[in-house]
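Whether sequence alone determines local backbone shape is best considered at the level of individual chains. We regard such an encoding as a compact summary of how the chain folds. The sequence in question and its structure tokens are set out directly beneath this paragraph.
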Amino acid sequence: MKIITHVFVLLTCIYVQADILEDFDSLGSNKILLEKAQALAPEKKIEIVQNRVVDRHWRHEFAPEFEVVSSGANPYFQTRMIGFNYQLHINPRWSIGLNYNYAFNELTEEGQQVIDDGRAKQDQILKEDPNSLDKPEPFIPELNWLKQSYSAQLNWYPIYGKFSLLNKAIVHFDLYTHLAIGQAQLRFNDSPLYQAGLGLGLWWSQHLTSRLEYKFTTYTAELYKSEQTVQTGNLNFSVGYLL
């Protein structure tokens, strides 16, 4: 009878353990599963959390990226950037990296209107009196835009999970914080560059990745022989390969 009891307890433990392994995808949300596990060891606190599926110990991530300045920018021009991002994943919680961005700038409607109005005023004066001594230069705002930037980065990934994509696939993700320091090259000057932000990393497979980041960027621009601190909010998207 004693042997039968031991066999029964052993089979029960194996069955519950199989259930736990089978239900790991729930990230511990299955209350019945937790109750079964706690019944085996009521004196212990049991938490079920699935490990990250994508291994990120000493792996390299290479990602081209697109970035747009979404807030705080100069009202007279719009900046968009393309670049390349490299990340060395030390472990699933930490990565360090290098980043390069090249900027494309174009006048906004407001900027173009200001320049057109200044030129029209000058043309009108010269049209009325070609010999007039009053020949004001058209007002053209000092456009000290960003040309390119380099930075070193540190990312920390404290939160991870997964979700179902249209009931077709399970996508694993990390929420992370982003810090960077580097150099910005502007039209008229160079400046130290500082960034802090939040990001969402999506791990589609052991190799395919994508990221969505919102970064607060600070640098100094020389305007009208003075210095002005520029603070922008940048939205960044990238698709990468994990080696």
